[in-house]
Each structure stands twice: as structure tokens, then as C-alpha cells.
Specification:
mainly alpha
Length: about 70
């Protein structure tokens, strides 16, 4: 997992497609869904950690631009 697209594809694999229109809100909702998948043991720890890192980096980048 290297990009946000990869994270979206992981979520899509489990039937989750997120688009609110606010990019930061989208990313935060993606993080929440990812946590639920991990807690349900559907995602392994390595994928979870990398996806979480990618999401948080993008949120931080977007907040820095504001």
C-alpha cells in the first residue's frame, strides 16, 4: 500500500465508498472505516498501519495548505 488510491481500493473491497465532497472529512471518515475493519480483524496490522499513516499525512498536508 503506497497511495491513497490503494487505501480507497482496500475500503472498496469491503463495500465502502466514501465521497462527502469535503476532502478532509472524506479522509477522516475513511480512517474511521479503516479502524472498524481492523477491529473486526478483516485487515492485517501492516496494511492498517500503512493506510492510517497515508490518511493522516494527507489530512495534515491539507490542513497545512489552509
Amino acid at each position: 500500500m503506497r497511495t491513497l488510491y490503494d487505501v480507497q481500493q482496500l475500503l472498496k473491497k469491503y463495500g465502502t465508498i466514501i465521497y462527502i465532497g469535503d476532502r478532509i472529512a472524506d479522509l477522516e471518515l475513511m480512517e474511521s472505516e479503516l479502524k472498524e475493519l481492523y477491529q473486526s480483524q478483516l485487515v492485517d496490522v501492516k496494511d492498517y498501519q500503512m493506510a492510517l499513516l497515508l490518511l493522516r499525512q494527507e489530512v495534515q498536508r491539507l490542513k497545512d495548505e489552509l
